[in-house]
Design a protein that fits this description.
single chain
Length: 76
């Protein structure tokens, strides 16, 4: 089975080609699509994960890095 779009295309959609970020984005978006039943793009398959991956490749879905706060010490 050939997955479209390919991983090389998807890696360009995130900083440093981090596959963990890709998987997290696709999983969260697939859950949203599963609940609403609507995607932002047409995909070859009606499966939520396929639609989510197509949205990422099309640039319709993005992410924002969250800065971690430094742990507070007892003096603060």
């Amino acid at each position: 089975m050939i997955i479209k779009p390919g991983i090389s295309t998807l890696e360009k959609c995130v900083d440093d080609g981090c596959r963990y970020v890709l998987v997290t984005m696709a999983a969260k978006r697939a859950r949203m699509i599963g609940e609403s039943g609507e995607g932002l793009v047409e995909a070859d398959s009606k499966k939520a994960v396929s639609v989510a991956v197509a949205e990422i490749a099309a640039g319709k879905i993005g992410y924002t890095k969250v800065k971690e706060e430094a742990p507070k010490t007892e003096e603060e």
